[in-house]
Amino acid sequence: MMNRADRPPLLSRLLPSRARWHVLALLVVVSAILPTVLIDRSLGQPRQGGEAAIGSLADASPDRDVAIFGLRAEPGSNRLDPLLSTYAAPLRRLLPDHGLTLLGSASRRLSAHQSLRCDLGDGRVLKVTLKDPLDDGKVHLCVQLLSPDRPEPVFLTQVRTPAGQLVFLDKSEPGSDAKLLIGVGAR
């Protein structure tokens, strides 16, 4: 019989390893977006002069608030990025024995075909482009990981998701056990 000290933390028992990554990513994105939402109360409001006439259809290519971030999780380390210190306790429970570093985050209101870049350091850049809206109302995003030593993207994927839903992508870091966790979403 296991005593209380030998049992794994509650979240480890309830969530599989991959789900813990998603919860961690959600915490990071919320911490990146929340200050913007609290400061800019105009998010989601029509711009001056851009109000639609009563009874007209919605704009065919609406603006969206787009957010992207990169997080490095390194197994076997105890280092926690000072920018994540507010969330230290839940992050440690979700990813015990992982060093966590917020590489970069960015959020901005975009129109169709506009891009948002997020610098991850070492010349690497995350780039997300808002594509034309899909017929079913979903948001269409193109996510790229760019590196200065490669002419083509290191990582390129098309994401089609309902507005307001975050999507998480992970990429193994070459030559190490660390992972790059990419989070992207639009509302």
Could you please describe the fold and organization of this structure?
It contains 3 helices and 8 strands; from the N terminus they run H-H-E-H-E-E-E-E-E-E-E. By secondary structure, it is an alpha+beta fold. It has one domain (10-41, 63-186). The strands form 2 sheets. The protein has a 4-stranded antiparallel β-sheet with strand order 2-1-8-7, covered by helices on one side. Strands 3-4-5-6 form a 4-stranded antiparallel β-sheet, with no helix packed on it. The longest helix is centred in the N-terminal third of the chain and has 23 residues, at 17-39. It is globular and about 55 Å long. Residues 37-59 have low confidence and may be disordered.
Q: What Rg do the Cα atoms give?
A: 19 Å
Calculate the terminal CA-CA distance, rounded to whole Å: 49 Å
Helix content range of the residues, please?
Answer: 10-25%
What proportion of the residues form beta strands (DSSP E)?
35-45%
Give the total of beta strands: 8
User: How is the largest sheet built, in terms of strand order?
Assistant: 2-1-8-7
Order of helices and strands: HHEHEEEEEEE
Mean pLDDT across the residues is 76
Q: Helix count?
A: 3
Structural class: alpha+beta
